């Protein structure tokens, strides 16, 4: 018997066609919304019991999702507080948002369903994305409550009548429409539940599963097994981030990590987040083995709100560099349903960012302090992360000064202060600047590295994907410190100490030598000069100026230095006036032989720089064969 018919008061023609039409990309979230409503209803019942406002039997809290493919229904049942007919009118009929017109306005701009659902309290109505008809059967916990039934076919009219539930709680029955019939598959629902409901705080059952159990022994004394049907519980109701760190062991963190990312290597370490003031946030963040791979590691943090999975697209919610981390963040204080541009401006999000950044810095500082050796061993992975933090987050950069490490080509590790102290005696230039030397490729720059080491200099190894930016940052932050790549100049000039080396050539001889080389070198962009360098150095050295090279590197990485990017490469070719070869070339009377010697010396320099390729390399090999 129909008790009441009415119109859902949303002051507009019909929002259901809109819900159906516009929210198609996220249809699956209807299940998240309805299951979390069911969980809420159970939590409310528990709360009423603990407040002494409900004397009845609470029973085992359980949400059930049932699929009836034949009847084309999905039912979400709970044993929560239920609703009276009055409450249905209040909570369901009066769609809980401030005004339909505002809703429609917003809708036009919204890009995905998440932005609107929830913001307007449309959780329940998301059911109409997939169902033609939605039925509620419910019995309230209140004494003397009558079961109620509500049914609505997606128009704005509904029917409210007497229901058939005999136990407290609610069934939401969805009559799935034709376009969405793929939701009527077990596998599909299981996948959606795994995604959104895996860590809900109340058990969520989806059908049953078969498990085999020991069943005594057979005649031969071998163990027997039997198949038993067990409720298929989707979730872990108390995931580790809801527990106190003191309750947890390393194994717990590691097995949770495996649960989140089944085929990943163990993480290096983790941080347990737990704040309740001035905002609410819990979570566990793991440091993965990054292995120089900044790109593929992103978007592994899962964002939850009260244990309901929301998204793993946490851009704008956590600082850029922290996106390299894995794990879980749970916060009801992050506005989950608003646009991303709004998120960036949100005060809570900013505070959360600051908090997480601080926690991460604390953890790194602690690891460094407590066990430097193991920290150094992990530096290969941590380093990328720390450097990313330094170049992208000033607050982190400030903290990281104490635990960022530099390693030299000999694989020794130093803090910034330690390193400066180490190299200052040998590597201070005439203006009092300490010059750090580094190599970006220890193999290719081997000859430059050994020349520098011969001079008593130390060479850092900065060969990671972010080291370009990192070097610029360091230079800005460190006082009276310059950083130069080891092949930025001839070793005598890398660190300008105003030391004069006498020339063994006269001015005329120098001029002549320069002419010979200028004629011998046909490669474009080579600027030849004769320099007074040490006699045991190389006869010719090819270098690119530090500034020029950096600008070009930046341009290549898309750093906006396009002007430099389009400039032709220019190198300095330093001919060593004091090398015995200089005298030999000058003494040669046959001009072809003279030229060949100069070319040979130049090619050797290119070879040392890894620049001798293609036709040049072939010519070099042929000439060398002739010479021997
Ligand atoms: N399974 C249920 N048991 C009891 N009450 C329910 C149930 N589902 C919905 N309700 C009631 O209907 C109201 C409206 O639900 P709806 O999902 O539209 O919005 P909400 O839960 O308040 O907000 P949102 O889901 O957007 O976060 C709920 O606040 C609750 O009072």
TrEMBL record:
Where is each Histidine kinase/HSP90-like ATPase domain found?
Answer: 26-180
Which SMART domains does the UniProt entry name for this protein?
HATPase_c
Q: Does the keyword Chaperone apply?
A: yes
Q: Output the SUPFAM superfamilies linked to this UniProt entry.
A: ATPase domain of HSP90 chaperone/DNA topoisomerase II/histidine kinase, HSP90 C-terminal domain, Ribosomal protein S5 domain 2-like
The record ties this protein, via InterPro entries, to: HATPase_C_sf (IPR036890), HATPase_dom (IPR003594), Heat_shock_protein_90_CS (IPR019805), HSP90_C (IPR037196), Hsp90_fam (IPR001404), Hsp90_N (IPR020575), Ribosomal_Su5_D2-typ_SF (IPR020568)
Keywords on record? ATP-binding, Chaperone, Nucleotide-binding
**Has the keyword ATP-binding been applied to this entry?**
yes
Q: Which family does the entry's similarity section mention?
A: Belongs to the heat shock protein 90 family.
Report the protein name in the record: Molecular chaperone HtpG
